[in-house]
Design brief:
The structure holds 3 protein chains of 3 kinds. Chain A is of the alpha/beta class. Chain A contains 9 helices and 10 strands. In chain A, a hairpin with a 2-residue loop joins strand 9 and strand 10. Chain A starts with a strand and ends in an 11-residue tail after the last helix. Chain B has a domain of 190 residues. Chain B is mainly α. Chain B has 12 helices and 2 strands, in the order αααααββααααααα. Chain B starts with a helix and ends in an 11-residue tail after the last helix. Chain C has a domain of 216 residues. Helices cover 71% and strands 1% of the residues of chain C. The longest helix of chain C has 28 residues. The chains are: A alpha/beta, B mainly alpha, C mainly alpha.
């Protein structure tokens, strides 16, 4: 469904991504892990359209979207929950959700359905979002992205600044999102959480994928080696 | 009694200033653009209205129906092709660019329309008035202008708070990048906001032109008054702009009562006082 | 990292030659040429000071004409009280620097766009105050006493030399200011204001010094205006048109360098005089050029030239002379 082919992104003299390729099929949950500065967010942001790649293509359902502006990709079915929530301060909770509303589908996401997923939202719908806790804001940000009824959901560092219990609850809600064949590509600092929810994991180091595989098949040692770039025993499915 | 009359006239004058100011406030609240050519566009609208009125014999009150939409289109174009480009360079570039535009417009109007002053033929509107008491009169024209200001601000406010485009405009004003991630075409919605702002400028220009005479150089003074109204009332609040306009109008009217040449200066002094004592204006709000 | 480059010896030689040539001008050319040059010098002083404000202190002012006016009126008042107008020129500069201090306390409360229009309102207010004094000419202007005894050619020459002295002092002063500690502070502020403050740069102080210096420059320009026109008219000296000229010149030439305003003034002047017959067209053209340059060549025309040829006639920056560090 989503394909990134040979993506290279250069910021001035720094190559943030070097020839990264990955793919996603309907219903997949793929996680990208790696240390700070490894290029995880850059990868996600490039797929979302916030960065122009120096080389490489991005394809959604076979259509090349590399040259599409950000807002057009949302219409095409790609939505991102950005790092740091980025809710709109002058809009109420409900308005924040509604901004995301795009094409409506009969079995698609609506404000009511988001309220059903996160019941506490209903009575706070008119409140400004700046008074919400970090976890609540993250939920609103997710709801906002869901309302565009995406086929592919990009999650950038969901756990940033949140308590582990809160993060756990958010990721617990993930399976409900995948109901209609939606796939999720997530970037995560918290390796444990990532391994728990994903069917495939890629590890990035200095702009390159150093390890790919299903969490079952990867040993902690292999992950650690790929994460930190230590030359050590190869893990299963390693590169 | 003269003072009460002056107060009344000042309040009504405030309506005109608020009409000028709401476009400026919208552009700044949404895009952080201070359009130094704001007053000159208003004067251009007055000239255009004059051309339309004399050219096809359209009554004054109908001229906004022609000029305002035209200005809306102009505003959209100016935003997308000039202001957006300057914003991409740096926020302060817009200041330089709009200043340049201001001078270009003034001199182009000078070349095109000569330096003579004109005014819009308002016929019976100019002289008609409601007599409240033997000493107090409220001119029909001033009342219409004040009403237009209130309606314009109310309409814009409702548009921003109740429609999906208005929501997207507010979202883009808060965080353009996050807004684009929700599928909002930020450049386009900024263009819409500019179109609305420019349409209000057209109304203000026509109102001004029927109130008093105008010439190509009248723009900067209008800009200053509009700006003072925005700052006094509080940036980011459209109703605050109305309040600011009224306060400015009253200051000028009362100042003129003291001494006929003192009016405008009184307004400046009030502005500078607000600046010194309460720089964020009287109403502090987000653009909601 | 090396300290600022020394100015090329070319600059020192060229400057000396140019200045000497200019000094001898009244002996060599007619008064209409020197009078033209006086106007050019006034513009260059204004553009240089505006450029200091905008390019180095990050303060975009649309109200510098306030100091042009104060400077002109200072000369008028002093001349009316028997002081020689030429001696009044430096006094006008000092008066403006002094006036700028309380004004800065007010306008510095504003940021960016608000600062710009706030300074404009201050100038407008001063205009309205000035016209209320009939002894200063009210709204119709006052002629400048004290110079009628001079032979016209001599007066013209003295005015010219005064203007030359002011413009040289302004350029040299700007150059020295920027190479001083204040200049270093300003460069830090320009790059990252918060960062600069956090390492102890006194941001407000640096900005205020520049604001006062620019006011002094504006005052000197206003004083020269009074002396060359022999007349002070409020609507002229406090006009926002001066800001238009300053801004266009600085933007077209290049904000943030000393050479920029020089180039910009030359271009502006040429355009003004070749198109003078066509009324306001030169302003439309200059305004249009300024708009295009601001959008597409933010460092101005000098910026384009300097980058292309790596030329710095008045170097005020710091340069890295090490090899480029390659990424691992």
């Amino acid at each position: 469904m989503l394909e990134a082919v040979d993506l290279t992104v250069r910021h001035d003299q720094l190559e943030a991504l070097s020839g990264v390729s990955l793919s996603l099929s309907a219903g997949d949950t793929v996680a990208i892990i790696g240390a700070n500065g490894a290029g995880k967010s850059t990868l996600l942001r490039t797929i979302a359209g916030l960065h122009r790649p120096t080389a490489g293509r991005v394809r959604l359902d076979g259509t090349d979207i590399t040259d599409l502006p950000v807002h057009a990709r949302v219409a095409a079915g790609l939505a991102m929950v950005p790092e740091g929530r980025r809710l709109f301060a002058s809009l109420s909770l409900e308005e924040n959700l509604l901004v995301g509303a795009g094409r409506q589908r009969p079995d698609g996401w609506t404000v009511e359905r988001v309220f059903a997923l996160f019941p506490w939202m209903g009575e706070r719908r008119r409140q400004p979002t700046i008074h919400l806790s970090g976890g609540e804001q993250q939920a609103v940000a997710i709801g906002r992205a869901l309302l565009s009824n995406p086929r592919v959901l990009l999650l950038d560092e969901l756990s940033l600044g949140l308590a582990p219990a809160v993060v756990g609850r958010l990721y617990d809600a993930l399976p409900e999102l995948l109901g209609s064949g939606m796939s999720v590509l997530l970037v995560e600092q918290d390796v444990t959480q990532a391994l728990r929810v994903a069917s495939t994991v890629h590890c990035l180091l200095e702009g390159r994928i150093t390890l790919s595989g299903s969490p079952r098949d990867l040993t902690p040692a292999a992950v650690e080696a790929a994460y930190f770039g230590l030359a050590s025993r190869p893990g299963r499915g390693g590169s | 009694m003269q003072w009460v009359n002056a107060l009344l006239q000042g309040v009504l004058l405030g309506g005109l200033y608020a009409l000028f100011a709401c476009g400026l406030s919208l552009l700044f609240g949404v895009m952080r653009v201070v359009n130094l050519a704001h007053g000159d566009f208003a004067v251009l609208a007055a000239y255009l209205a004059l051309a339309v009125i004399t050219g096809i014999h359209l009554p004054l009150l109908w001229s906004p129906l022609v000029v305002a939409p035209l200005f809306g289109v102009v505003g959209y174009g100016v935003q997308r092709f000039v202001l957006q480009r300057s914003l991409d360079v740096s926020p302060l570039t817009t200041l330089l660019v709009t200043f340049g535009l201001s001078i270009v417009l003034q001199n182009a109007m000078l070349e095109g329309f000569s330096a003579n002053s004109h005014s819009l033929p308002s016929g019976s509107l100019a002289s008609g008035a409601f007599r409240l008491t033997p000493q107090l009169a409220v001119g029909h024209a001033s009342l219409i202008v004040f009403g237009a200001a209130v309606v314009a601000i109310a309409v814009i406010q409702v548009f921003l708070s109740r429609t999906s485009t208005g929501r997207r405009i507010r979202a883009a004003a808060d965080d353009p990048e996050a807004a684009s991630l929700t599928g909002t075409n930020v450049r386009h919605v900024f263009g819409i906001a500019a179109a609305i702002a420019f349409a209000s400028v057209a109304l203000a220009g026509i109102a001004f032109g029927s109130y008093s005479s105008f010439d190509p150089g009248s723009g900067p003074q209008r800009l200053i008054f509009a700006f003072e109204a925005v700052v006094i009332g509080g940036v980011g609040s459209l109703w605050g702009t109305l309040l600011g306009g009224v306060i400015l109008g009253v200051a000028q009217a009362l100042g003129a009562q003291v001494d006929s040449g003192f009016g405008v200066l009184a307004g400046h002094l009030v502005f500078l006082a607000v600046l010194a004592l309460r720089p964020n204006g009287l109403i502090q709000a987000r653009l909601t | 990292m090396a300290r600022s480059r020394r100015p090329p010896t070319v600059t020192a030689l060229l400057s000396t030659v140019v200045v000497l040539a200019l000094v001898s001008a009244p002996y060599v050319v007619y008064a209409d040429i020197t009078s033209l040059l006086v106007n050019l010098f006034i513009l260059l002083v204004l553009a240089t000071t505006w450029n200091l404000l905008a390019g180095y202190a990050g303060l975009i002012s649309v109200g510098q004409q306030a100091y042009v006016g104060i400077g002109a009126y200072t000369v008028l008042v002093l001349a009316q009280n028997g002081v020689s107008p030429y001696l009044a020129i430096p006094v006008a500069a000092a008066v403006c620097a002094a006036a700028a201090l309380p004004i800065s306390l007010l306008v510095f409360r504003l940021r960016n766009e608000y600062f710009a229009i706030g300074t404009w309102v201050v100038a407008e207010a001063l205009l309205l105050i000035a016209v209320r004094f009939p002894s200063l000419g009210g709204g119709t202007g006052a002629s400048l006493p004290g110079l009628s005894g001079f032979d016209p050619a001599l007066r013209q020459a003295f005015t010219y030399w005064a203007a030359l002295a002011v413009v040289v002092a302004t350029l040299v002063g700007a150059y020295l200011l920027l190479r001083s500690r204040v200049g270093l502070d300003l460069t830090a502020i320009r790059d990252d204001e918060v960062g600069a403050a956090s390492v102890g740069v006194r941001v407000s102080r640096a900005k205020r010094i520049v604001y006062l210096a620019a006011a002094a420059g504006g005052g000197a320009a206003g004083a020269l205006l009074a002396v060359s026109q022999l007349n002070v008219l409020a609507g002229n000296v406090f006009s926002v048109q001066w800001s238009a000229y300053m801004i266009f010149v600085a933007v077209i030439g290049g904000v943030g360098t000393i050479e920029g305003p020089i180039l910009g003034t030359a271009i502006f002047f040429t355009l003004q005089h070749t198109l003078a017959q066509n009324g306001a067209w030169y302003l439309i053209l200059v305004g249009g050029i300024a708009v295009v340059v601001a959008m597409y060549a933010p460092r101005g025309l000098w910026g384009l030239v300097a980058d292309r040829f790596d030329l710095r006639l008045f170097p005020v920056g710091y340069y890295l002379h090490d090899e480029r560090v390659e990424p691992p």
